[in-house]
Write a structure and sequence with these properties.
The chain has about 100 residues and is mainly α. The protein has helices at about 30-40, 45-55, 60-85, 85-95; strands at about 15-20, 20-25. The protein has a two-stranded antiparallel sheet. The longest helix has 26 residues, at about 60-85.
Length: about 100
């Protein structure tokens, strides 16, 4: 199994991420990996270290909660768009 950070690369160093006034320290896994986890795109073996890390890291718990909320919003918007073929045009006209 390839490491999360890609072939031939070193693991990520501790990163300070400032997003909308929220400071996060992502020391162990890149945000892209958390996005894949939230979407259910990782294997069980890949999920295990993330789930262990979530037990102790409140910053990553918060990040995952934000990602889950974002995914719910996107899925809801996609459902509305699927039900109403004119939804895109309505949004553009209202902008």
């Amino acid at each position: 199994m390839e490491p999360f950070w890609g072939p031939g690369s070193a693991p990520p160093r501790k990163v300070l991420l400032v997003d909308a006034g929220v400071v996060r320290y992502l020391a162990r896994f890149p945000e892209e990996v958390w996005e894949q986890y939230a979407r259910g795109a990782l294997s069980e073996d890949e999920c295990e270290p993330l789930e262990e890390h979530l037990l102790i890291c409140s910053a990553c718990q918060h990040l995952l909660a934000e990602l889950d909320a974002y995914i719910r919003v996107i899925k809801a918007a996609a459902a509305v768009a699927a039900e109403n073929p004119n939804a895109r045009q309505i949004c553009l006209d209202g902008a």
